[in-house]
Amino acid sequence: MATETTGAAAAPGIIDVQLALGQICLDRGSAAQAAEWFRIAARSGDARAINMMGRCFERGWGVPADPGQAAACYRKAADRGDAWALFNLADLHCRGEGVPADDAAAYRLYAAAARKGHAKALNMLGLFHECGRAVPVDGAAARAFFQAAAEGGDCWGRFNHARMLILDGRLEEALPWFRRALDAGFPDFYRCMADALAGHPDPRLRALARQAAAMAEAGTPS
């Protein structure tokens, strides 16, 4: 999983060590130990640690899954300015888990995260503008947000930017972005990309679909 504890101060401190230990435990499948490290770090009031406790409650990592508790953690961390917490709370509002389903609230939170440079939030703003959720349909705005997300390194942003380029008849420009999306993805993303491109008439896109499917099967980037 991609860590959400990035952005720490350059000089390592005790909170940074606790967060790193929690992430190591999480990556090794020791969810209960990970949750304990995040809980210890969160006692300091560190927004990153509080956000990670929210993730534990959202995903059931070492604690019973509780979307309401997850939302409370995210809100507390978001109030301290954490970009990941803003994004995660927006996601809950999108799905109506632990908080009321509220597209307008989700959009505001994604926008706040995007102002902090959160690439995944930029991609979500693009989707909202493309689909007309909380805001009027605006293809130009969607394209601008997808491009910003792609340039920021988000795999979905790269995929959606490439998708828009194809719709605009710019296939040659789209191909490198699809390839770059594979460099930044994860198994569920690879499966979605494979499904989306498998039936395309261009053989290069079908080849990318096969590559994505193989990466999804392997479970790790190639």
Automatic annotation (TrEMBL):
Q: Superkingdom of the source? A: Bacteria
Q: Please report a single Pfam family linked to this protein.
A: Sel1
**Annotated coiled-coil segments of the chain:** none
What the entry lists under InterPro entries is as follows: Sel1-like (IPR006597), Sel1_AlgK (IPR050767), TPR-like_helical_dom_sf (IPR011990)
The name this protein carries in UniProt is TPR repeat protein
Identify the species of origin: Azospirillum rugosum
